Amino acid sequence: MGTDSGFKTRMLRAIHAEAKKRGLDHDALHDLCVARCGVGSMSEMTGQQLHSLYHQWTGKALRRRAPLPTNKPVEDGQMIGTEELITLAQEFAKRDWGPETQANFTKRQLRGRSKIRTRGDWTKVLQGIRALNKRDPKLLSGGTEP
Questions:
Q1: Which of 44, 53, 76, 101 could be bridged to 120 by S-S, CB 3.0 to 4.6 A?
Q2: Long-range Cβ pairs for the range 9-18 (8 Å, 24+)
Q3: pLDDT tens across 43-56, in order?
Q4: For 28-46, how does the pLDDT look when each residue is reduced to its tens digit (9 = 90+)?
Q5: Can you give the residue ranges of every domain in the chain?
Q6: How far apart are alpha carbons 92 and 33 in whole angstroms?
Q7: Mean pLDDT of all residues in 92-109
Q8: Is it the case that residue 107 has pLDDT exceeding 90?
């Protein structure tokens, strides 16, 4: 096991929780770890030592977290093209917004900027307008109000 600080932090928290279940306070847990591993502090324990103690107590293994998958086929900084602008225009058209309202909405989404330049900008604006469209009762009922 490496020295991944996120993993080590999770192990320390898990061990503290298990120690509490067993009626050990922090000082007793510290003394146990010092005696068992010959370290001056629990923070000096390796990931393997922490994992061994946790496994001995619980019979379980605390696994390293895999990195979250990214669903970004292109970079956020990449410039947008015609297809992205068409998609955005279609979403705005669902709300019957004019150019001024679209610009104001875009400015709010981009925190003061009204120009959509990159894929990241486009995603922020598109997600915002889609969220509004999803909540609109007129759009949910197919354009007719009850």
A1: 76
A2: 10/62, 11/47, 11/50, 11/51, 11/54, 11/62, 12/42, 12/43, 12/50, 14/54, 14/62, 15/42, 15/50, 15/53, 15/54, 15/57, 18/54, 18/57, 18/58
A3: 888 888 888 888 88
A4: 988 888 888 888 888 888 8
A5: 5-58, 82-140
A6: 61
A7: 93
A8: yes
- Token pair recorded at residue 40: 């001056």
DSSP per residue, 54-72: HHHHHS---PPPPPPP---
Q: Two tokens at 98?
A: 């004019």
Residue bearing tokens 């020295």: 3
In this prediction the pTM is: 0.45
Q: For 56, left (φ over 0), alpha (ψ -120 to 50), or beta?
A: alpha
